[in-house]
Amino acid sequence: MADSPNTNTPDTNDNTLDIDSAAVTARQVVAVRYGDPVDVLKIVEVELPAPDQGQVVVAVEAIGVNPIDAKIVRGVMGTDESALPRPIGNELSGTVRAVGPGTNDFAVGDPVIGYPVPGAYADHVVVGTDRLHRRPESLDVQRAAGLLLAGVTAADAVATAQIAGGDVVVVHGGAGAVGVVAVQLAVKAGATVIATAAQTNHAYLRGLGAIPVTYGDGLIERIREGAPGAVTAAVDTVGTDEAIDVSLELVVDRSRIVSIAAFGRAAEGIVVIAGPSAASNRHRAEAIEPLIASAADGSLVTEVAATYPMDRAGHALADLSGRHPRGKFVLLP
């Protein structure tokens, strides 16, 4: 088991805990090989280094679970054996426990959101302050932990598609973690939003300001019936051939068809935001603080579908890969 968090507070004239007293044996989830997450994820104990200048130790309280985590574990993103045992995860929320020497950006006890934080599936992490964001008191740790990866992806897609007032935009997968944010950002921009989703999520999407339609056979006719005019843009969060085929049929300007998942269709003129382009990096960085503020004041609606203890991380990833309730999955250390 990990050492209990150190609850000592720093001297009122010193923002830095004594580094020796801040030493932590962290529990961390790693993939010991590539394959089924239930079989290959293990918890190991890791001695964390003392935080250096510009770094802090965060006691993690909640961890966002994302589809990319499952793809990495299964080897979809590559099977580099030298990376094993491979830490997993990229977003978390928690509280600053210790601060490196000469680091003044954050103080011990500050509630924070960490993104991007490689190896976020852990109960403590050492992280640079450039990857931390202040968590408002009104934003609970579970929603905070699952906010930013999906949020900045949605913001990047909406910005890349140049969604603005007067647009009619289709969001494929409107009830998914990225889709829900994309719907709300597009509505806020003044667009009419048509969101594809299962019937069970239609009332929810109407509440977000979208016109919901059911995916499947006849989708293009249902979109045309629901749209008040020509569809001018599409944001695809699912990557299915149906989503891309329908988008290509409806949207004249293919540069305004933006997908986060249809990697095999990029040659058809659509925009797939997959790599760290300068434009994507800018969109994502600029979106972080507005997303946090909007989630905190309630103007951006997000949900937590389920929580799992950290030692059930493999089951969380397996469940996320199948049919699951609307909202984010969150690990609790």
Quick overview of this protein structure:
The protein is an alpha/beta fold and 333 residues long. The chain is 28% helix and 24% strand.
Please describe the structure with a list of short key phrases separated by commas or semicolons.
alpha/beta, 2 domains, six-stranded parallel beta sheet, 16 strands, Quinone Oxidoreductase, Chain A, domain 1, seven-stranded mixed beta sheet, 333 residues, 28% helix
Describe this structure in words.
Helices cover 28% and strands 24% of the residues. With 333 residues, the chain is of the alpha/beta class. Strands 3, 5, 6, 7, 8, 15 and 16 form a seven-stranded mixed beta sheet that branches. Strands 11-10-9-12-13-14 form a six-stranded parallel beta sheet, with helices on both faces. It has a three-stranded antiparallel beta sheet with strand order 2-1-4. The longest helix is centred in the C-terminal third of the chain and has 20 residues, at 278-297. The radius of gyration is 21 Å and the shape is globular. The model is unreliable at 1-21 (pLDDT under 50).
End-to-end Cα distance: 11 Å
Query: How can the largest sheet be summarized?
Result: 7 strands, mixed
> What's the order of the H and E elements?
EHEEHEEEEEHHEHEHEHEHEEHEHE
Query: What is the rounded Rg?
Result: 21 Å
Count up the domains. 2
Shape call: globular
Q: Write down the CATH topology of the largest domain.
A: Quinone Oxidoreductase, Chain A, domain 1
- Low-confidence segments, ≥5 residues, pLDDT <50? 1-21
The strand count comes to: 16
